[in-house]
Each structure stands twice: as structure tokens, then as C-alpha cells.
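Dig into what follows:
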Amino acid sequence: MAFKMDGESVLPAGREAVWANLNDPETLKACIPGCQELEQKENGGFSAVVKVKIGPVSATFKGSVDLTDLDPPSGYRIVGQGEGGAAGFARGGATVGLTEQDGGTLLRYDVDAVIGGRLAQLGGRLVNGVAKKLADEFFAKFAQIVEERHGAASA
């Protein structure tokens, strides 16, 4: 099942600070809902273990992401895949862009993914709804951390 999602979030810090946080394993681990492990790989990408629940399906996904098309501090492309055993798999990518806006940074993302297995059988509306909720949770926590670390310094 193909899946698309996009969105944006205005963050209360400059692009350099947002970029640094987007590439910091500790920040990302704290922001990714259900993240149990997150380690930076030698190539700059990440390997992760994330537990998610979508409707009646609960699974622990093990996967990795690579960062391509690096354009610091303006953005990059994330390409990744994860395996959730009997629950299924997910693979895809996201383009992330950062632009300065009103004393902060506008982060835009555009996701294309494919899911399979039991997850794909749940239906697009349920999967899209949960994905949107998880993205909202990620960006709320990310904005909070960025503001705590950099909000006063960049004001």
C-alpha cells in the first residue's frame, strides 16, 4: 500500500540550530514516538528500533535510514526501511527542507512510503491517521526541545 504525507512546522530557532538538532541522535530518539534505540551509523544515517501500535497491530520495527542530497543547513532526503516481523514492513523516503521565517525556521517535509503485510491490510484511513498523529507528536516534541536549547539564544 502506497502512502503519502506532507506538512510543515515553524520552529523557534535559526536554521543552523534546527539542522544540528535534526542530525542529533539524542534529540531524535527523544522525539520519535515509541523509539527504543537510535544509533548514528558511520555514513551519517541512523539505525533504529521503534515500537508502534496501529489499530489492533502492535509491532517493533528494526530499520535504518540514510541521509542523501545533503544541503546543510537547508535540508536533505531521508531514505529508509524497517521490518516489523509478522506485522509487515515499511520503506520509503522523505524530503526535508529548512527555510528562515519570521525569526525562526520553517521545516517542510514530504513523505512517500510503501507498507506491506498486516499493516497494509488495516486500510489507508487508519494508517494515514496514525502516521499524521505520530508526525504531530514528533514535531511538537522537536519544537519543545529546540526552543529549550536555542529559543532564548536566537531571540
The longest strand covers residues 57-71. The mean pLDDT is 92. The longest helix spans residues 124-151. Residues 103 and 155 are 7 Å apart (CA to CA).
